[in-house]
Amino acid sequence: MAHKTKLHLSIFLLLIVTFWEQDHVHGEPKVPCYFIFGDSLVDSGNNNNLETVAKVNYPPYGIDFPGGPTGRFTNGRTVADIMGELLGFDDFIPSFLTVNSSEILKGVNYASGSAGIRQETGKQLGANLELSKQLENHQTIVSRIVDMLGNESAANHLNQCFYWSVTGSNDYLNNYFMPQYYNTSSQYTPDKYAEALIKQYSQQIMTLYNSGARKVAVNGIGPIGCAPYSTANYDTKGSLCVDYMNDAVNYFNSRLISLVDHLNNDLADARFIYLNAIGFGSEYTASPGFSFELNGCCKVNEHGQCVPNETPCSFRTLNLFWDLFHPTEISNKLSATSSYLTVKNIL
């Protein structure tokens, strides 16, 4: 059984690499612009100037990224970076922190480490740009595009762009499951908390729609109970993962799928799509034949982030996690490629 699982995974990885080599070709991008919202899974440096411990503009972060550390929470490219390459962009989408006027027509990355759907999420670590603030920043960019192109041309341009939101995990990891800082777990059952999150998220998505978004992908939350931080700090009760944490986010994911269905029914001029977060912390790794490592690749501090300037593991393509929360570039490549196969349907 172990050999069979390893064989199946090897074939899967081979197919991913083959697809990547065939589909990642130079030419015109499949969309004129690409806007990214979310948290540390897709942050490209927006937290660098904020007063927070949730910033990683130091080595060994970026050890495999061109130019070194940028504020990306991984060793190389994020899942959003790789999605951009699959969409046909030759350059990485700039962060809101660094974007200039000549770049905004191709898109902006607004994501912020430790941020979430709720305003208070992640604030025990310091400042962040919650999703509503990211949408405010996007409106600033939209206004600049209108000034450049005029109302009609700007609207047409923005309608053709791809918008991707990767958020929600911090509303659990850095809110609901931190009762020492937040009271949400005493206010809500897991089901009611998911309901409250989706209600707020739906309003935020409508704000994005009203600013011109017509091709929108929203990510489900991955199995946070399988992250090294979770298994090290919470009782797994003999399971591979912290199952009650995964159960909680499943309420969110189910409601998010329903929300996407409603949006597609109600907004005929737009296309919304739900993207599964690949659960590499679960069924594949349950087999002893699985050759990836589930522990992080670097020495970490009390926040689960890499200790500055420490030497990370050498075989980073064999690790799913970079630190105690964030995936390695190889994980991001697998996730982005799988997601792109779905995203192609709305482009």
Automatic annotation (TrEMBL):
Signal peptide start-end: 1-27
Pfam families linked = Lipase_GDSL
- Where does this polypeptide localize? Secreted
Cross-referenced CDD domains, in alphabetical order? Answer: SGNH_plant_lipase_like
UniProt KW keywords: Hydrolase, Lipid degradation, Lipid metabolism, Secreted, Signal
Query: The organism sits in which domain of life?
Result: Eukaryota
User: Which is one Gene Ontology cellular component term of this protein?
Assistant: extracellular region
Tell me if Acetylation is a UniProt keyword of this record. Answer: no
Entry similarity comment? Belongs to the 'GDSL' lipolytic enzyme family.
Name the UniProt record assigns to this protein = GDSL esterase/lipase
